[in-house]
Amino acid sequence: MRRELVCLWCLQENIVSVTQQQILESLSKVPSPRGALTNAGVLSAITIVKDKVYFAINVDAGEVKAWEPVRAQAEAAVRAVPGVAAVMVALTAERAAGAAPAPRSGIAPASSHRSPGAGAPSPMSRQAAIPGVNAVIAVASGKGGVGKSTTAINLALGLRELGLRVGLLDADIYGPSVPKLIGTSARPELDDNRRMVPLAKFGLAVMSIGFLIDPDSPVVWRAPMVVSAITQMLRDVDWGELDVLVVDMPPGTGDAQLTLAQNVPLRGAVIVSTPQDLALIDARRGLAMFTKVEVPVLGIVENMSYFQCPHCGTRSDIFGHGGARDEAERLGVPFLGEIPLHMDIRATSDAGTPVMVSDPQGVHAMAYRAIAVQLLDQLRP
Ligand SMILES: Nc1ncnc2c1ncn2[C@@H]1O[C@H](COP(=O)(O)OP(=O)(O)OP(=O)(O)O)[C@@H](O)[C@H]1O
Question: Is 257 close to ligand 1, i.e. is its CB under 6 Å away?
Answer without folding.
Answer: no
